[in-house]
Amino acid sequence: MRADARRNRALILDAALDLFATCGPAVSMEEIARAAGLGVGTLYRHFPDRQALQEQIAADTLRRLLSALRDLAARPAPAWEALVLFVRHCAGLPLALAKTLVDDASPPPEVAELTGDVNGLIARLAEQAQREGSLRADLPPREVVDLLSVAVCRPGARADDALTTVILDGLKAPTAVGPARGAAVTVD
Amino acid sequence: MRADARRNRALILDAALDLFATCGPAVSMEEIARAAGLGVGTLYRHFPDRQALQEQIAADTLRRLLSALRDLAARPAPAWEALVLFVRHCAGLPLALAKTLVDDASPPPEVAELTGDVNGLIARLAEQAQREGSLRADLPPREVVDLLSVAVCRPGARADDALTTVILDGLKAPTAVGPARGAAVTVD
DNA sequence: GATAACATGAACCGGATCTTCCGGTTCCGG
DNA sequence: CCGGAACCGGAAGATCCGGTTCATGTTATC
Fold first, then answer.
1. Among A185, B59, B97, B147, which residue is least crowded by beta carbons within 10 Å?
2. Collapsing DSSP states into helix, strand and coil, what is residue A172?
3. How far is A96 from chain B (nearest CA, A)?
């Protein structure tokens, strides 16, 4: 493969990643090409059609995410901390794209499998956090996964988003309800 | 206006309200007509084009919302309670539609004004709740409005949604983090 | 410098939706 | 009950929009 071709392929992937992350999965091929500083034709030279490009990017993203997640899950830290780090890690990833691919009927098998793995790992972390008492216990772990995906699978989600912060706080196990009014207490 | 025409108009509005609420603002005119049990032609007899229908429904929805909000704000209850009741009240309303209309450039003036009023009232409630100490203070009221709109302006949002619950919990002022260890305090 | 690989973007295509239109139907006053 | 005006239906036409192709011009490599 010629050097310029390789460079252009990289440009395309970068631009597409960026656009998918900030604008959602409905960006047109022309926008992507323009953002990469190339013509549409070039884009089609490297990816036979839109689906191929989407799959490539979604799969790459999910693979990266999965490996990060495995690292987090392997550490001996509290599960809650792992969840928070994970959510922070997700910011700026084109997850809305992956979500779209998965929600649609007949997702490409690789993407479906990767998503399954990711969701499974998150669910396990959630369960563990619940056992550790740091995550509210009134939600099935699956529901927690869905919630987090809302926080994370938005075009333009940022790690320190108000929404992300609020959702994480809302997911914390309630700190013991303060003492009754009028009571005198000693905190040990 | 003939009786059947009036009836059909009502059928259309009902069906459209329902579809906009559950499927988002991108429903096709044919789907709406089908849901109303009528032909597309009939739909176009009553509303000159898609925009007219959208505006009508969005404006109706916002008007209802605004009046409910005024009632809530007028009551002497705590502002936090009003906010929660408001959010519950929003479930099943086609607010995603209104949001789309407002987000787009050049929204119809009536819709824009209504939305402005609604947002303003919510922001005032949020501010009041912060003064009362029931709503976390580290977010500008405007941000709170945006957050709540995420909770509420989803196709198919339900009042007892996990997401809605979690967001509301995350918005609560943190129950005192607990005084420093070893301190003795009296709770009045 | 020759050649094959590559880039370009205007033109083409498909399908999805909005909108029109006219034959058929339904209501309503006389 | 009847006539006609208002109304309904849904196929056909217009329009839009993005994906894809391809003939032409350019560039890396040997």
1. A185
2. strand
3. 15
- The alpha-helical segments, DSSP class H, found in A75-174 are 79-90, 95-103, 109-131, 141-152, 162-171
- 3-state SS, residue B130: helix
Q: Are A32 and A16 in contact (CB under 8 A)?
A: yes
Q: How far apart, in whole angstroms, are the C-alpha atoms of residue A146 and residue A113? A: 17
Whether CB of B46 is under 7 Å from strand D: the answer is yes
Give pLDDT tens digits along chain B (188 positions): 899 999 999 999 999 999 999 998 889 999 999 999 999 999 999 999 999 999 999 999 999 999 999 999 999 999 999 999 999 999 889 998 888 888 877 788 899 999 999 999 999 999 999 999 999 999 999 999 999 998 898 888 888 889 999 999 999 998 765 444 434 445 44
* A106 backbone φψ class: left, alpha, beta (φ>0; ψ -120 to 50): left
- List for chain B the helix, strand, coil content (%; round to 5): 70, 5, 30
Question: Do residues B48 and B41 touch, judged by C-beta distance below 8 A?
Answer: no
Q: How far is the CA of A11 from the C1' of D23 (A)?
A: 25
Q: Which residue's structure tokens are 């022309």?
A: A30
**What is the spatial distance between Cα B115 and Cα B83, in angstroms, rounded to a whole number?**
17
List CB contacts of B65: < 8 A, sequence separation 6 or more. B89, B90, B93, B95, B118
Across the interface, of B162, B167, B174, the residue whose CB is closest to A139 is B162
